[in-house]
Structures are given as structure tokens and as C-alpha cells.
Amino acid sequence: MKTIWRGAGRYFLIAMIAGGAAFQLSEGQAEAAEGVLEIGAAHLMEGQRQAFQSHLASSLLFMDKGFLDSEADDSYPASHIAFAPGSDESEMNFSWYSPSTTRAGQVQYAEVSSGTEDFPENAAVTVDASLKNATYGYSAHEAVITQLKNETDYMYRLGDGRGNWTRAFHFKTKDPSSYEFVMVADPQIGASGDIAEDQRGWDKTLQQAIGNSPDSSFILSAGDQVDARYSEKEYAAYFAPEPLRNYPTATTIGNHDDTYHYSYHFNVPNENWELGNYDNSGGDYYFSYGDTLFMNLNSNSQNPEEHIQFMEETAEATAGRDWKWKILVFHHSIYSAAAHSQSEVVLNLRDELVPTIDELGFDAVLMGHDHSYVRTYQMENFQPLKNHMMQGEVPVNPEGTVYITGNTASGSKFYGMQTEREPYSAVREQWGVPTYMTIQVEPTRLRFETYRTDTEELVDEYEIIKDPSIETVVPALEKVELEANSTVLATEENSFYPETELKLKGENVEGGQYDISLDSVTYRTSSDGIQIKDGKVLAAEGAEPGKVEVFAEVKDGDKVWESNAIEFELVAHEETKLLEAGSEWRYLDDGSDQKKDWIEADFDDSDWAQGAGPLGFPEDEERPELGPVETLVGFGGDETEKIALTYFRAAFEVEDVEEIGDLGYVEFGVDDAVILYLNGEEIMRFNMPETGEFGFEDYQEAVSDEDFGSEDRIERIYLDEEALAHLKDGENVLAAQVHQDDRFSSDLYWDMEMAVNKK
């Protein structure tokens, strides 16, 4: 039940749903609260009461914080104002929240003189918005304003269509032939556990960035605006900084934004809802500013064919323009140096997208996700390019693309860097403070400046010059060196030996790198036991064990250069499966705390339930190759409070452990995360932090920032000799603790196989 009453010009509301809570609301907020309660009363279903109570509390709290403009003007309490670049510099896109309504709102805008504070109603243009979905109790509105003039001051305000308006906001259009913009990444409000502190850090970064670059045409965000994809409190904190209402922001969908709540809040131009869309968060989109083309991808979609189609179709649709610069933006950095740099999601995106990025001639790719800073060398065909003409450290008329990964803009979370430096990283740093970048765009120059917010120090600068009047001279080739990532090849197709790749390095007469074209390379071998294709070394059909030498010839002009030789060893190989997919597992799904005894080989699991893999819920949950669920597992009985951890154990026999070699793997399907033990010793974990112990109350999302594995594939993790040392003669036991991502998780899945090589 509910009670609402008026006092001293304010409304108060008490919602009695499985307990009472009091919130102080403005008049506009009270209307929204009524909507929340009415929807709750109409749609509350058995088992959903607790979730609704939590949602109601969250919604009311965000109303108290989120309707930022209602304090200045209660007549129209618009909130979450998303002000974005339009399809080109003559347009701006708007989206905002209001209390639930059936009437679409409006945008009014007018050209003004510099310094004007009063909104010129008589000169204003009014644009009707359209309604779209929003959170319970609210409506979202979208509108586009057009025919904006360059280098002009404007004011705008938002209205309810009944003559009630917010206060007015300023913005200024710039000269699109020479302009600048601010780039930020991963505000991820809420990731620290303190929304207010993250908001302060986010506001500080934006204030500093705009203070440093007040003439910016727009702000560009590389994704993860919030941490919890459904949290309106976090969205309210994200939208709080004042610069977001004076400077349009081109946002990107991050892995923490990947749900329909993102689409509620943002209105982007030229969006293709069919390409790149993931969980109804939104598709790929593009816009232009002057002679620069910007493309923005939703990299949560693990369907690179869609992104490639979007980029190619956009290039074709805009082919009539002579673009001086092309910039690509997406969230999951494919050239980074911290926790996510080697994830399968990232490496797959790199492999699939780079050829198209090269083909379409992008000058820069701007990314986030890895909460650290990386700027690459100019990159082409997956290789760093260093032999273009330089003016100091400035590349002139270079080939390839520079990739830049921005650090967090709020300071809510930082990742440690990988120990080994990547060959593509020109600059890699973890300053442990928020950073931002200003990007200056001129007809012949693209300049990037990165700043830290604690000292406001310029910590990295880079620029590209493209000027056809400057003649470029490439220093001549002097030496060629051949390298390989492995020199052992199996004679038979196998699951263990890594794919062997060759790498050629050229040195020029000045001692610098000489970039070798793949078209100029011919590989030579001492026998026909191996074959080389696209730089990869494979055993030929029917090859016998033995040794083979490989070297390369590089044609440069009229001269042929010969590399050093590398010796490869061909070895015989045999492997066997210790545990097949679809095997019988014992499992416990009662949400109890089993401490650590349950992982031991001699633990008595005879009173646990038993069934064949795959195990999980619901029945139609499946993975390719492993198939749908065969054994249904419980989740605790409460749809809104699913148990965090389910226990699984499977036994298998080893006749003679001395016959097992030093290579192994586990191949599995899991939803959502797993830690796997062999005879009481941990041998691998997936979607969980690399260190630390986690138990029956730990949801994956609460303890880990790992990428979720795609539900369209199974995973494989290789085991080394140390892990295989835990095998023994007789019965062996694998114990898997499978964690749900959160208490609302809709599914669970577990099955695996284990294989080893034989001596």
C-alpha cells in the first residue's frame, strides 16, 4: 500500500512493499513514484516481490539524486540529459528522462549573443521529441535539432509539451575545418563501490578537460559509463557533471553498459540496429564532423562479420566525401597491456577487424576497457611500422593506424600492466590516476595529448602529419632476420602443440626498423617435410620425424636478401582423453558452505545428486559441440536470489601415470565462472580473479572484472607439467566450483573433457 501527502511544498511517500521506506520527493518526482507503484501493483508476480522492492528503492534514490535540474526549475524535472553530436556538425541529438507520461516532450533552441543568460523565447525554434522506453515510472524522449551554424552561440531547454521548461543551457558550435575534442574512457561509475566518490572523480576529470580545452566541439567516451548495467543511481551520477549539458558527448557501449538500459539513455545518429546490436543495447553508428568520419562499434557483439559489414557499408555510403581523417571507436581494446590484453574476446576481435581497418584506411582507433594507457606504433597487417619518414618523433605521411587505449576517467578502477612489453606498444603506462585526452584535428595534422588529473601534467603526446607536398624517403634495407615462436611440430594433427608462426624483421641502413612487405617474401626449406602458408609452419601430409631448416628470401628492388636459417624438429605425437564430455558428475545445489574438504579425492560425495553432463538449467541452455543440458540442477528455489555456487565432482581412472606426458588441456562450457581442482589441487580458473579464495556466497560479478566467455563457443585451457603432476594411478577426481554472475542469473551450465599426451 502507499500513502502520499503534501507538506511545506514537498511530497512525502511511504511505500509498504514487504517493509516500509520513506523518501522525500518533489512534485515531479511524486508523479514518477506513483507510476512505479502502479506498475508494481499491476505486474508483481510470485517470487518477484523482493526484486521489485530492491528496484523501487533504487529508483526512488536515483530520483532524489537524478532529477538534477528540478531543483532549479520544478516545472519540468527532466533528468539524465544526453546531449550528443548529430549526423554532422549541423545537428545535435538529445535524449532525456521525465516522470512517466504519454505526451512526448520538446526541445527549444535559439541563436544567442555571447554571454546571454535569458532564453530568447520569441526567437526560439521548437522541435517535438518522440517517446521511447525507459525505466519503470519514467519516459524517455528523443529529439534532433538541425540547421545549426558554425561558430555560433546557442541556448536550449527541454519541455513537457505543455509549456513547462527546464532551465536553459549553453553550447557553441565550432569551425569544423580545424577543431578539437576530448576523449575519455571507462568512467564506470560505481566500480569502486562508492558511487559518490566515482562521481566526484568523473566530474573533476571533465572540469579539467574542458578547462584545458574550452573550445572542444564534443566529448567522446570509449565506453563503460556505469558499472552495473541496470543501475539508475549510477546513471544519475554519470550524468551529473555540468559539462555534459554544455558539450555534446558521443558515447560508446562498453561491456558494463550492454543492455537495453543503455538504449534508454542515449540517442545516436546513423545507428544500424541490425548490425552490432548486443542484448538490445544498440547497434553500430557513425557521424561526421567537418572532413572527419567517425565510426563507432558495439564491440560486445562477438560477431565481427556484422562490424565489418557496417564499416564497409558506411564507407560505401559516404564515398562521395573526400575524408581527410577517419577515426574508429569501440570499447574492447585490441592493442592494450593490462588484464584484458590477452583475453580470447580481444584477440578474436583483433584477428577479425584489423584487415578491414587496414583496408579502409583508418588513421586512429580509440578504445578503453583495460583501465590503463597504451599508444601503439603505427600498425598495419598486425605489425608495428617504423620506417616512415619522421620529423623528430612525428610520422609524416605514414602507412597504417595508431591505436590508443584510454585509462579510466573517474579513477573507479585500475588494472596492473602485463610484465612483458608488447611489440606494438610505443607507450604503456599505469599512472594510477584518472586521465583524459585532447585531440586536435587540422587539415594536415592530427594531434593527441594525454593528461593526468592529479598534477594536470601532459604525459604523452603524438601527432600524425599528412601533407602530400612533403616528400618521404625510406632508408634502404640492410639486414633481414627470421624468428619463430616455436621450433617443434607434430607430424599428426593434434590438440597440444602451438601454431607455429614465422616473423621477419628488417633493419635499415640507419639501424632502424625496415618494414617488410609480405608480397616480397619467399620461404625456402631443406626438405618437403613441412609447408609454409601465410607465415605459418605446418607439417606436410605423411611427414616423418626429423629436422628441417627454413630461411626467407626478401626481394627489395633489384636485390634479394637472405635471412638466417631456423631448424625445426618434427616429432611423433599421441594423445588420449582422461574424461569425456557427457560423463557422470556428482553435484550439490543446496547453497551450503562446503569449506575446502569437498575438493579432496577421498571426500565422500555419495549422498550428492548425480547426472550426466551437460548439467545446469534451463533445459534449453546449451553450448556448441557439448549440446543442451542433460541433467537439470537446482538454483535454490528463489528466482531473485539464486545460489552463488554449485559444486560438481567427477572421477576417472589412470592405469599408469608414467605413460602420461607433459601436455594437457581441459575443454569446457560454463555459465558463468569456474575454479577446477584435480585431486584437491587447483589446476585452472576461468572468469574469476587469478588469485584469492572464493566460496558459497561469492557471485562472479562481485569479485571479478573478467570478460564473460561467449555463449556461442566452448573454452579450452592448456595444462602444464606442474598441473599434470597431480595425476595418480587409480581413481582421480576433478572438482569444479561453478559460480553464477549474480543472484538474478537466468542460467547455469557445466560440462568438460580432459585430454593429455602420451610419452
TrEMBL record:
Query: Which residue intervals define the domain Purple acid phosphatase N-terminal in the entry?
Result: 80-173
Record keywords: Signal included?
Answer: yes
Gene Ontology molecular function: acid phosphatase activity; metal ion binding
For the Calcineurin-like phosphoesterase domain, which residue ranges apply? 193-373
Q: Which SUPFAM superfamilies match?
A: Metallo-dependent phosphatases, Purple acid phosphatase, N-terminal domain
Instruction: Point out the signal peptide segment.
Output: none
Q: Which Pfam families match?
A: Metallophos, Pur_ac_phosph_N
State the UniProt keywords alphabetically: Signal
Source domain of life is Bacteria
Q: Supply the InterPro entries for this chain.
A: Calcineurin-like_PHP, Metallo-depent_PP-like, PAPs_N, Purple_acid_Pase-like_N
| Descriptive protein name | Calcineurin-like phosphoesterase family protein
